Protein backbone atom coordinates (compact mmCIF):
# COMPACT_ATOMS: atom_id res chain seq x y z
CA UNK A 1 0.00 0.00 0.00
CA UNK A 2 1.28 3.43 -0.92
CA UNK A 3 1.32 6.03 1.89
CA UNK A 4 -1.73 8.28 1.80
CA UNK A 5 0.19 11.54 2.40
CA UNK A 6 2.21 10.88 -0.75
CA UNK A 7 -0.81 9.91 -2.83
CA UNK A 8 -2.67 13.05 -1.78
CA UNK A 9 0.29 15.42 -2.29
CA UNK A 10 -0.37 17.95 -5.07
CA UNK A 11 3.40 18.31 -5.66
CA UNK A 12 5.25 15.03 -5.09
CA UNK A 13 8.40 13.08 -5.92
CA UNK A 14 9.05 9.35 -6.37
CA UNK A 15 12.58 7.92 -6.73
CA UNK A 16 14.41 4.60 -6.65
CA UNK A 17 15.53 1.70 -8.86
CA UNK A 18 12.33 -0.35 -8.50
CA UNK A 19 10.90 0.23 -11.98
CA UNK A 20 7.76 -1.84 -11.34
CA UNK A 21 7.12 0.00 -8.11
CA UNK A 22 7.64 3.37 -9.77
CA UNK A 23 5.19 2.56 -12.54
CA UNK A 24 2.55 1.40 -10.08
CA UNK A 25 3.09 4.49 -7.92
CA UNK A 26 2.77 6.84 -10.89
CA UNK A 27 -0.48 5.22 -11.98
CA UNK A 28 -1.85 5.38 -8.43
CA UNK A 29 -0.95 9.07 -8.05
CA UNK A 30 -2.39 9.85 -11.47
CA UNK A 31 -5.66 8.11 -10.55
CA UNK A 32 -6.00 10.45 -7.57
CA UNK A 33 -5.09 13.71 -9.31
CA UNK A 34 -6.19 13.44 -12.96
CA UNK A 35 -9.86 13.76 -13.88
CA UNK A 36 -10.40 11.14 -16.63
CA UNK A 37 -13.04 13.30 -18.27
CA UNK A 38 -10.56 16.15 -18.81
CA UNK A 39 -7.30 14.18 -19.07
CA UNK A 40 -6.69 15.02 -22.74
CA UNK A 41 -6.88 18.73 -21.98
CA UNK A 42 -5.39 18.98 -18.49
CA UNK A 43 -2.69 16.29 -18.21
CA UNK A 44 0.81 16.85 -19.63
CA UNK A 45 3.72 14.39 -19.75
CA UNK A 46 7.06 16.17 -20.21
CA UNK A 47 9.80 14.72 -22.39
CA UNK A 48 12.39 12.52 -20.70
CA UNK A 49 15.43 14.55 -19.72
CA UNK A 50 13.61 17.84 -20.33
CA UNK A 51 14.86 21.14 -18.80
CA UNK A 52 13.09 22.96 -15.97
CA UNK A 53 11.81 25.53 -18.47
CA UNK A 54 9.60 22.88 -20.10
CA UNK A 55 8.21 21.85 -16.71
CA UNK A 56 7.41 25.46 -15.77
CA UNK A 57 5.74 26.12 -19.13
CA UNK A 58 3.62 22.99 -18.74
CA UNK A 59 2.48 24.07 -15.27
CA UNK A 60 1.56 27.53 -16.54
CA UNK A 61 -0.66 26.23 -19.34
CA UNK A 62 -4.33 26.82 -18.76
CA UNK A 63 -6.63 23.91 -17.93
CA UNK A 64 -10.38 23.55 -18.55
CA UNK A 65 -12.55 25.41 -16.09
CA UNK A 66 -12.85 23.38 -12.91
CA UNK A 67 -9.91 21.06 -13.72
CA UNK A 68 -6.32 21.28 -12.47
CA UNK A 69 -3.26 21.38 -14.69
CA UNK A 70 -1.39 18.13 -13.90
CA UNK A 71 2.20 17.65 -15.05
CA UNK A 72 4.23 14.42 -14.96
CA UNK A 73 8.02 14.45 -15.42
CA UNK A 74 8.82 10.76 -16.12
CA UNK A 75 12.60 11.08 -15.93
CA UNK A 76 13.62 13.97 -13.71
CA UNK A 77 17.07 12.72 -12.69
CA UNK A 78 18.83 15.46 -14.64
CA UNK A 79 16.70 18.10 -12.90
CA UNK A 80 17.59 16.80 -9.45
CA UNK A 81 21.35 16.40 -9.70
CA UNK A 82 22.51 19.60 -8.02
CA UNK A 83 20.48 21.18 -5.24
CA UNK A 84 22.34 24.48 -5.41
CA UNK A 85 21.61 24.94 -9.11
CA UNK A 86 17.81 25.07 -8.94
CA UNK A 87 16.71 28.21 -10.84
CA UNK A 88 15.05 30.82 -8.63
CA UNK A 89 11.77 30.59 -10.57
CA UNK A 90 11.72 26.82 -10.10
CA UNK A 91 12.46 27.02 -6.40
CA UNK A 92 9.64 29.52 -5.93
CA UNK A 93 7.23 27.35 -7.95
CA UNK A 94 8.09 24.27 -5.88
CA UNK A 95 7.67 26.16 -2.61
CA UNK A 96 4.59 28.15 -3.62
CA UNK A 97 2.76 26.25 -6.41
CA UNK A 98 0.34 28.10 -8.63
CA UNK A 99 -3.27 27.52 -7.72
CA UNK A 100 -4.80 24.68 -9.72
CA UNK A 101 -1.52 22.92 -10.52
CA UNK A 102 -0.21 19.48 -9.63
CA UNK A 103 3.23 17.99 -10.32
CA UNK A 104 4.84 14.55 -10.03
CA UNK A 105 8.61 14.22 -10.47
CA UNK A 106 9.97 10.73 -11.16
CA UNK A 107 13.65 9.87 -10.65
CA UNK A 108 14.91 6.45 -11.74
CA UNK A 109 17.86 6.54 -9.34
CA UNK A 110 17.85 6.77 -5.56
CA UNK A 111 18.30 10.34 -4.37
CA UNK A 112 20.39 11.23 -1.34
CA UNK A 113 19.53 13.42 1.63
CA UNK A 114 23.18 14.04 2.46
CA UNK A 115 24.87 17.47 2.63
CA UNK A 116 24.59 19.26 -0.69
CA UNK A 117 22.32 16.57 -2.11
CA UNK A 118 18.85 17.23 -3.45
CA UNK A 119 16.84 15.71 -0.57
CA UNK A 120 19.03 17.49 1.94
CA UNK A 121 18.16 20.94 0.57
CA UNK A 122 14.97 22.99 0.45
CA UNK A 123 12.32 22.61 -0.81
CA UNK A 124 12.78 18.83 -1.18
CA UNK A 125 13.94 18.39 2.42
CA UNK A 126 10.59 19.86 3.46
CA UNK A 127 8.76 17.61 0.97
CA UNK A 128 10.50 14.64 2.58
CA UNK A 129 9.38 15.65 6.07
CA UNK A 130 5.82 16.16 4.82
CA UNK A 131 5.62 12.68 3.28
CA UNK A 132 5.62 13.98 -0.29
CA UNK A 133 8.72 11.94 -1.26
CA UNK A 134 8.36 8.21 -1.96
CA UNK A 135 11.45 5.97 -2.13
CA UNK A 136 11.23 2.71 -4.08
CA UNK A 137 14.89 1.77 -4.24
CA UNK A 138 16.92 -1.38 -3.76
CA UNK A 139 16.75 -3.30 -0.49
CA UNK A 140 19.76 -4.49 1.48
CA UNK A 141 20.25 -8.25 1.67
CA UNK A 142 18.56 -8.66 5.06
CA UNK A 143 15.51 -6.63 4.09
CA UNK A 144 15.41 -8.29 0.66
CA UNK A 145 15.01 -11.75 2.21
CA UNK A 146 12.05 -10.55 4.28
CA UNK A 147 10.55 -8.83 1.24
CA UNK A 148 10.86 -12.05 -0.78
CA UNK A 149 9.10 -14.04 1.91
CA UNK A 150 6.29 -11.48 2.03
CA UNK A 151 5.84 -11.49 -1.74
CA UNK A 152 5.93 -15.28 -1.84
CA UNK A 153 3.22 -15.45 0.82
CA UNK A 154 1.03 -13.05 -1.17
CA UNK A 155 1.53 -15.24 -4.25
CA UNK A 156 0.72 -18.36 -2.18
CA UNK A 157 4.19 -19.61 -3.11
CA UNK A 158 5.82 -21.97 -0.59
CA UNK A 159 9.55 -21.45 -0.04
CA UNK A 160 11.83 -24.03 1.54
CA UNK A 161 14.11 -22.95 4.37
CA UNK A 162 16.93 -20.71 3.15
CA UNK A 163 15.42 -20.01 -0.28
CA UNK A 164 14.69 -16.34 0.40
CA UNK A 165 18.22 -15.77 1.66
CA UNK A 166 19.77 -17.53 -1.34
CA UNK A 167 17.68 -15.60 -3.86
CA UNK A 168 18.53 -12.30 -2.13
CA UNK A 169 22.22 -13.18 -2.00
CA UNK A 170 22.36 -13.96 -5.69
CA UNK A 171 20.07 -11.36 -7.19
CA UNK A 172 20.62 -8.40 -4.89
CA UNK A 173 17.88 -6.09 -3.68
CA UNK A 174 16.19 -4.75 -6.81
CA UNK A 175 12.47 -5.39 -6.15
CA UNK A 176 11.65 -5.60 -9.86
CA UNK A 177 14.22 -8.35 -10.48
CA UNK A 178 13.19 -10.21 -7.32
CA UNK A 179 9.52 -10.02 -8.28
CA UNK A 180 10.20 -11.53 -11.72
CA UNK A 181 12.38 -14.21 -10.16
CA UNK A 182 9.53 -15.29 -7.90
CA UNK A 183 7.21 -15.42 -10.90
CA UNK A 184 9.68 -17.71 -12.72
CA UNK A 185 10.10 -19.92 -9.65
CA UNK A 186 6.32 -20.13 -9.32
CA UNK A 187 6.07 -21.43 -12.88
CA UNK A 188 8.92 -23.89 -12.44
CA UNK A 189 7.59 -25.20 -9.12
CA UNK A 190 4.18 -26.03 -10.60
CA UNK A 191 2.43 -25.86 -7.26
CA UNK A 192 5.24 -27.59 -5.38
CA UNK A 193 7.47 -26.07 -2.72
CA UNK A 194 10.36 -24.00 -4.11
CA UNK A 195 13.53 -25.79 -3.06
CA UNK A 196 17.14 -24.64 -2.97
CA UNK A 197 17.84 -26.99 -5.87
CA UNK A 198 15.15 -25.30 -7.97
CA UNK A 199 16.74 -21.92 -7.26
CA UNK A 200 20.09 -23.32 -8.42
CA UNK A 201 18.55 -24.64 -11.62
CA UNK A 202 16.88 -21.31 -12.36
CA UNK A 203 20.03 -19.23 -11.92
CA UNK A 204 22.89 -21.42 -13.15
CA UNK A 205 23.10 -19.99 -16.68
CA UNK A 206 25.02 -16.86 -15.72
CA UNK A 207 28.05 -18.95 -14.86
CA UNK A 208 29.25 -20.51 -11.60
CA UNK A 209 25.76 -20.09 -10.11
CA UNK A 210 26.31 -16.34 -9.77
CA UNK A 211 23.91 -13.86 -11.32
CA UNK A 212 26.61 -11.19 -11.13
CA UNK A 213 29.08 -13.09 -13.33
CA UNK A 214 28.75 -10.48 -16.09
CA UNK A 215 29.40 -7.59 -13.69
CA UNK A 216 32.35 -9.34 -12.08
CA UNK A 217 33.81 -10.12 -15.50
CA UNK A 218 33.84 -6.55 -16.83
CA UNK A 219 34.96 -5.20 -13.47
CA UNK A 220 37.95 -7.51 -13.80
CA UNK A 221 38.59 -6.49 -17.39
CA UNK A 222 37.73 -10.01 -18.61
CA UNK A 223 36.10 -9.07 -21.91
CA UNK A 224 35.72 -12.65 -23.20
CA UNK A 225 34.05 -13.85 -19.98
CA UNK A 226 31.80 -10.79 -19.90
CA UNK A 227 30.65 -11.32 -23.47
CA UNK A 228 29.99 -15.00 -22.77
CA UNK A 229 27.83 -14.10 -19.74
CA UNK A 230 26.03 -11.52 -21.87
CA UNK A 231 25.31 -14.09 -24.59
CA UNK A 232 23.88 -16.58 -22.07
CA UNK A 233 21.67 -13.90 -20.51
CA UNK A 234 20.30 -12.92 -23.90
CA UNK A 235 19.68 -16.57 -24.78
CA UNK A 236 17.76 -17.08 -21.54
CA UNK A 237 15.62 -13.98 -22.15
CA UNK A 238 15.57 -13.10 -25.87
CA UNK A 239 12.89 -10.45 -25.26
CA UNK A 240 15.57 -8.19 -23.65
CA UNK A 241 14.58 -9.22 -20.12
CA UNK A 242 18.01 -10.69 -19.41
CA UNK A 243 19.83 -7.73 -20.90
CA UNK A 244 17.71 -5.30 -18.86
CA UNK A 245 18.59 -7.17 -15.69
CA UNK A 246 22.29 -6.81 -16.50
CA UNK A 247 21.79 -3.18 -17.43
CA UNK A 248 20.39 -2.53 -13.96
CA UNK A 249 23.63 -3.79 -12.43
CA UNK A 250 25.70 -1.60 -14.73
CA UNK A 251 23.60 1.45 -13.94
CA UNK A 252 24.10 0.94 -10.21
CA UNK A 253 27.88 0.76 -10.56
CA UNK A 254 28.18 3.72 -12.93
CA UNK A 255 25.85 5.87 -10.84
CA UNK A 256 28.07 5.22 -7.84
CA UNK A 257 31.03 6.49 -9.82
CA UNK A 258 29.10 9.66 -10.66
CA UNK A 259 28.08 10.11 -7.03
CA UNK A 260 31.70 9.76 -5.96
CA UNK A 261 32.75 12.42 -8.46
CA UNK A 262 30.03 14.76 -7.18
CA UNK A 263 30.91 14.07 -3.54
CA UNK A 264 34.53 14.94 -4.21
CA UNK A 265 33.48 18.11 -5.97
CA UNK A 266 31.61 19.05 -2.80
CA UNK A 267 34.71 18.40 -0.71
CA UNK A 268 33.85 15.04 0.87
CA UNK A 269 37.08 13.14 1.44
CA UNK A 270 35.93 9.99 3.19
CA UNK A 271 34.16 8.57 6.20
CA UNK A 272 30.49 7.70 6.71
CA UNK A 273 29.29 10.76 4.77
CA UNK A 274 31.10 9.64 1.62
CA UNK A 275 29.82 6.09 2.04
CA UNK A 276 26.25 7.40 2.36
CA UNK A 277 26.70 9.73 -0.62
CA UNK A 278 27.40 6.70 -2.82
CA UNK A 279 24.29 4.94 -1.55
CA UNK A 280 26.36 2.28 0.22
CA UNK A 281 25.64 0.71 3.57
CA UNK A 282 28.07 0.89 6.51
CA UNK A 283 29.32 -2.62 5.77
CA UNK A 284 30.07 -1.70 2.14
CA UNK A 285 32.69 0.95 2.88
CA UNK A 286 35.37 -1.41 1.57
CA UNK A 287 34.01 -0.82 -1.96
CA UNK A 288 35.13 2.82 -1.93
CA UNK A 289 38.71 2.00 -2.93
CA UNK A 290 37.56 0.25 -6.08
CA UNK A 291 35.34 3.13 -7.18
CA UNK A 292 38.07 5.64 -6.36
CA UNK A 293 40.53 3.68 -8.51
CA UNK A 294 38.22 3.68 -11.51
CA UNK A 295 37.29 7.35 -11.11
CA UNK A 296 40.95 8.26 -10.82
CA UNK A 297 41.54 6.63 -14.19
CA UNK A 298 38.58 7.92 -16.21
CA UNK A 299 37.75 11.13 -14.34
CA UNK A 300 34.36 12.75 -13.78
CA UNK A 301 33.83 13.31 -17.50
CA UNK A 302 34.49 9.65 -18.22
CA UNK A 303 31.98 8.60 -15.56
CA UNK A 304 29.39 10.92 -17.07
CA UNK A 305 30.02 9.48 -20.54
CA UNK A 306 29.48 5.98 -19.15
CA UNK A 307 26.19 7.04 -17.56
CA UNK A 308 25.10 8.55 -20.86
CA UNK A 309 25.94 5.27 -22.59
CA UNK A 310 23.92 3.33 -20.00
CA UNK A 311 20.92 5.59 -20.62
CA UNK A 312 21.32 5.25 -24.39
CA UNK A 313 21.51 1.46 -24.06
CA UNK A 314 18.33 1.51 -21.97
CA UNK A 315 16.55 3.35 -24.78
CA UNK A 316 17.99 0.97 -27.37
CA UNK A 317 16.71 -2.08 -25.51
CA UNK A 318 13.27 -0.52 -25.23
CA UNK A 319 13.19 0.42 -28.91
CA UNK A 320 13.15 4.16 -28.31
CA UNK A 321 16.57 5.24 -29.52
CA UNK A 322 17.21 7.18 -32.68
CA UNK A 323 20.45 5.33 -33.38
CA UNK A 324 18.86 1.83 -33.24
CA UNK A 325 22.23 0.25 -32.37
CA UNK A 326 22.37 -3.40 -33.41
CA UNK A 327 24.39 -4.41 -30.37
CA UNK A 328 23.77 -1.94 -27.51
CA UNK A 329 24.81 -4.31 -24.74
CA UNK A 330 27.92 -5.37 -26.66
CA UNK A 331 29.01 -1.75 -26.91
CA UNK A 332 28.28 -1.13 -23.24
CA UNK A 333 30.12 -4.26 -22.12
CA UNK A 334 33.21 -3.21 -24.04
CA UNK A 335 33.11 0.32 -22.61
CA UNK A 336 32.72 -0.97 -19.06
CA UNK A 337 35.63 -3.37 -19.45
CA UNK A 338 37.84 -0.55 -20.66
CA UNK A 339 36.83 1.72 -17.78
CA UNK A 340 37.34 -0.85 -15.02
CA UNK A 341 40.32 -2.70 -16.45
CA UNK A 342 43.67 -1.97 -14.86
Topology, element by element:
Layout lengths: L3 H5 L2 E5 L3 H15 L5 H4 E3 L6 H9 L8 E5 L14 H8 L5 E7 L16 H6 L3 E3 L5 H14 L8 H9 L3 H15 L6 H8 L9 H7 L3 H14 L4 H25 L5 H7 L10 H30 L10 H13 L2
Parallel strand pairs: 1-4, 1-5, 2-3, 3-4
Task: Give an account of the 3D structure.
The protein has 342 residues and is α/β, with parallel strands linked by helices. It folds into three domains: 132 residues, P-loop containing nucleotide triphosphate hydrolases (Rossmann fold), CATH 3.40.50; 69 residues, Orthogonal Bundle (Helicase, Ruva Protein, domain 3), CATH 1.10.8.60; 100 residues, no CATH class. It is 55% helix and 7% strand. The chain has a five-stranded parallel beta sheet with strand order 2-3-4-1-5, sandwiched between helices. Helix 7 packs across helix 9 and helix 15 packs antiparallel against helix 16. It is globular. The N and C termini lie far apart (46 Å). About 4% of the residues have low confidence.
Short description:
55% of the residues lie in helices and 7% in strands.
